[in-house]
Amino acid sequence: LAEKKKHDLVVVGSGPGGYVAAIKAAQLGFDTACVEKRGRAGGTCLNVGCIPSKALLNNSHLYHQMKHEAKQRGIDISGDVSVNVAQLQKAKDTSVKQLTGGIEMLFKKNGVTYYKGHGSFEDENNIKVSPVEGVEGSVTEETILEAKNIIVATGSEVTPFPGIKIDEERIVSSTGALSLKEVPKRLAIIGGGIIGLEMGSVYSRLGSKVSVVEFLPKIGATMDDEVASATQKFLKKQGFDFKLGTKVLSAERNGDVVNIEVENVKSGKKESLEADVLLVAIGRRPYIQGLNAEKLGLEVDKRGRLVIDEQFNTKFPHIKVIGDVTFGPMLAHKAEEEGIAAVEYLKEGHGHVNYANIPSVMYTHPEVAWVGKTEEQLKEAGISYKIGKFPFMANSRAKTNQDSDGFVKILIDAETERILGAHIIGPNAGEMIAEAGLALEYGASAEDVARVCHAHPTLSEAFKEANLAAYSKSINF
Ligand code: FAD
Ligand code: NAI
């Protein structure tokens, strides 16, 4: 007979949604358990997503700077600068291990019981944890967790491309792309979204010739159009080749090469491409395999998402769902916010996530970051707006750092001058967007921001100046 344990709350999945929910719940006094089958906490984000990709982005950027910019910056490096892929991977693994281990420590500190094993619904009040082969510390026998409340945070997985077989060697998903053993001479990418452009940047800096095939006529699907086309320009300058409005018909590995057939959507013209590695990055889909959600009759929509109401409830109010496995953008910080709010609903009966204020960041160089409405969305909604723009070329810190590509673009309501959207391409745009988020959350006008004293010389002065430009005139441009 399976062993039985009781908890106030059982969270299935330890990604940014699940682990944050579990810690918050324990802090609020719930006897909380978290079930994870991967063997390491942190989910997609820490293991095969945000963290390893940023480790590679950071170090490939350093390499590129040392190789191509050091001399002009007055740094002489004796001998050639070269890449040691094994060490690059080791540095990445060290960051991942430290952070995933950190979550286990936080679980201990906050009193969250951590079960390593596969979680599935036995019924609406019981989660069965089954042993997972090869996972160190996995439960050794089936364990039943009787739970007053359950939060499902099982995340997402790579969307497969029908007919293309991923071997994680020559034809890879993001997971394989994060662990290549050598730098491919030619890297082809299906999908000009965030994964394609970030991973493309890593390998382009390390010396790959990168070609991106994108179905839509623009890259970065949800970006403001002007920002997307500026982004495309800087990536092109860095050596990217783009085939937009192009669909992939097939791709096949033949020994050490991958042959790809593509077709222009408008003209129907076909073309054959050859690459050493092909990255398939056409999106992610919700993951509920083996969860047994169907046994409970939990509703799943056409896109595979678990259906919930605005309080994260399934048809059972004590079973909530958060993160990538349900509606909304598939972002770590969105999952985290939902984790907190779902637990607050359980404890207090109310919680809050402002879906109109979730930032997006693409960690290329320069970075691209945005929050709130794009120009296209404002036009479609019939809202009249004014634009304030300020280029980093006119920002003293960016000039000093010789890192001045990009601009800040602020969209404000034409009448009230309230900020509606912020779009930044530039160094550290991902940090700067937090200021825009704060302004949006508190309903600031452009003038409110422009009247805040910003330290000099900082990149954030560009944000202030763009706000000034939105309702009046900038000083330095
Ligand atoms: P996940 O992180 O997917 O975690 C779910 C966990 O549940 C997994 O560990 C899984 O093993 C476990 N699980 C599933 N089913 C079961 C079960 N039945 N029993 C036990 N455990 C189970 N987002 C950002 O915001 N910023 C970024 O820079 C960023 N970079 C990314 C880069 C890449 C290459 C990828 C692929 C994604 C990136 N993302 C990024 C997206 C981000 O990783 C996800 O949005 C985030 O991880 C979602 O969190 P989650 O908790 O919903 O799910
Ligand atoms: P994505 O949705 O960002 O981009 C996929 C792209 O592929 C789109 O531009 C789409 O038009 C294109 N596409 C789809 N089908 C195609 C086809 N058949 N042929 C050619 N192009 C096709 O998805 P991506 O890049 O795979 O990322 C998955 C998720 O991970 C995203 O939701 C993203 O939010 C998250 N992520 C976030 C990061 C960040 O915040 N910095 C980094 C990496 C991923």
TrEMBL record:
Active-site residues annotated for this sequence: 456 (proton acceptor)
GO BP of this protein: 2-oxoglutarate metabolic process
SUPFAM superfamilies, per the entry: FAD/NAD(P)-binding domain, FAD/NAD-linked reductases, dimerisation (C-terminal) domain
GO molecular function: dihydrolipoyl dehydrogenase (NADH) activity; flavin adenine dinucleotide binding
Catalysed reactions, as listed in the record: N(6)-[(R)-dihydrolipoyl]-L-lysyl-[protein] + NAD(+) = N(6)-[(R)-lipoyl]-L-lysyl-[protein] + NADH + H(+)
InterPro entries (alphabetical): Class-I_Pyr_Nuc-Dis_Oxidored, FAD/NAD-bd_sf, FAD/NAD-binding_dom, FAD/NAD-linked_Rdtase_dimer_sf, Lipoamide_DH, Pyr_nuc-diS_OxRdtase, Pyr_nucl-diS_OxRdtase_dimer, Pyr_OxRdtase_I_AS
UniProt: FAD binding residues: 54, 119, 154-156, 324, 330-333
Domain of life: Eukaryota
Protein residues bound to NAD(+): 191-198, 214, 283
Residue ranges constituting the FAD/NAD(P)-binding domain according to the UniProt record: 8-339
Disulfide bonds: 45-50
Keyword Coiled coil attributed: no
Cofactor binding: number and manner: Binds 1 FAD per subunit.
Database matches in Gene3D superfamilies: 3.30.390.30, FAD/NAD(P)-binding domain (3.50.50.60)
Coiled-coil spans in chain: none
One GO cellular component, as annotated: oxoglutarate dehydrogenase complex
Protein EC: 1.8.1.4
Cofactor(s) named in the record: FAD
Membrane found in the keyword field: no
Residue stretches making up the Pyridine nucleotide-disulphide oxidoreductase dimerisation domain: 358-466
UniProt KW keywords: Disulfide bond, FAD, Flavoprotein, NAD, Nucleotide-binding, Oxidoreductase, Redox-active center
Note: The active site is a redox-active disulfide bond.
Family: Belongs to the class-I pyridine nucleotide-disulfide oxidoreductase family.
Protein name, entry field: Dihydrolipoyl dehydrogenase
Gene source species: Lachancea thermotolerans (strain ATCC 56472 / CBS 6340 / NRRL Y-8284) (Yeast)
Lineage: Eukaryota, Fungi, Dikarya, Ascomycota, Saccharomycotina
